[in-house]
Amino acid sequence: MLISMNSKTQAIFERLWTYDNEGYSKDGGETVYEFFDDPNNFNSVKTGLMDFLKKHGLSKDADSSEALGFIRSKFREKGIPFDEQNIRQNIRNWLNKEIKSISNRRIIFLFCLAFELDLPESEEFITKVFFERPFNFRNAEETIYYFCIKNKYAYSKAEELIKEFNDQNVSCGSDDVETVVIKKEICSIESLNDLSAYLLLYADRFKDNKNTAKKCAERYLIQAAEITDSFKKQTKKKNRLEQIHANKLLGTILGYYNKYDRNEPSKAPLADDEDEGLRSFLFTDFIKLHFPSNENIHKLRTGKPVPYELLRKIIILMHFYCFCKTDQSQNNKERFYRYVSELNDILFDSGFGKLYLRNSYDCLFLYCVKNNDPIKSFQHTISLNWINNAAE
Questions:
Q1: Is 84 helix (H, G, I), strand (E, B) or coil?
Q2: From the CB of residue 98, how many other CB atoms can be counted at a distance below 10 Å?
Q3: What dihedral do alpha carbons 215, 221, 225, 226 form, nearest 10°?
């Protein structure tokens, strides 16, 4: 159900089950707050990429500069341009800095082609190293990379197909077909001619490349707002999504529908103009990045552009609350595996990758859902973390 686990990930999975509902270890060891505060428990792009390279021939004691040279040689062997400034600089940053998000996904697919990864290897590489969705089937370029990786076509063929599609100058309209349907259709295509014909015939499907994910995030926002009664009472808005009182919704889910007050450490920061305070108390940088807040929920409600990672995090947070509010299970393990199975299906249908334990955001919810009272555990963990940060 979870992404395949190596020995270290398996050890982390087993450790999660040693923490109780309030975050204390049953053996008297570290608290769950200390667990989340330890970067060694989670992957980063830098460490994940170096581990990947060492598994594919890089010397075990190589540094980042040797790694860059190794990557350059792999790219050149396959005729892939490496010395374009944006490619070289992005890869150098990945090897030397703590990257929170990927600005150029194309380079990831070039890696897959350069290292001759097959489809499962590519999906694992993208998910585990970059915490990104493997392929966006609402994006024509990524669909072409998917087809070429699956069928072992070279970089030159991928670029040829991308240029051919871009040169069509097709005027795109809109298409409400779900992403999972598009993926199934693409997976069934076997020839280059059939792929080209499909891309041209259904060009509309590649315009709004977040359509299914946005609809899913909106659906769970509305469902959570209905459970928490978080709709504005005095409003002329007819759209249910626009009626959501985001401050009340988030305040109820996090357990603090109060004005931010540092004199009351039992109350975490949350208010209409306190998004920065909200972000400041949330664990690792990766959890903080695009954490659902008043500001970015407002962007989604009003149709403004939002990043994929935000959509994924909204879906996970809102689904977690809705799932736990309606779940009647008294068996923690049964609830845990049912939650994982249900959420993975939702993420898959929305075009995202499965839950991954070494992704700190995913891990937070996996820890909470296995406890006796998952929502209370989640709220307590958030509170515990904020109190620790406030005391520093």
A1: coil
A2: 12
A3: 40
C-alpha angle 282/316/280, rounded to 5°? 15
Nearest to 329 by CA among 339, 340, 320: 339
* Encoded amino acid at 169, one letter: N
Q: Per residue in 165-193, pLDDT tens?
A: 888 765 555 566 778 888 899 999 999 99
CA distances from 123 to 56, 131, 150, 340 (A): 16, 10, 11, 19
Encoded tokens for 232: 């504005």
Q: Tokens 């109190």, residue?
A: 387
53 forms beta bridges with none
pTM over cut 0.85: no
Task: Tell me what the mean pLDDT of segment 196-215 comes to.
Answer: 82
Q: How far apart are CA 324 and CA 244, in angstroms?
A: 20
Question: CA angle at residue 321 from 307 to 286, to 5 degrees?
Answer: 40
Cα angle: 289, vertex 295, 296; to 5 degrees: 55
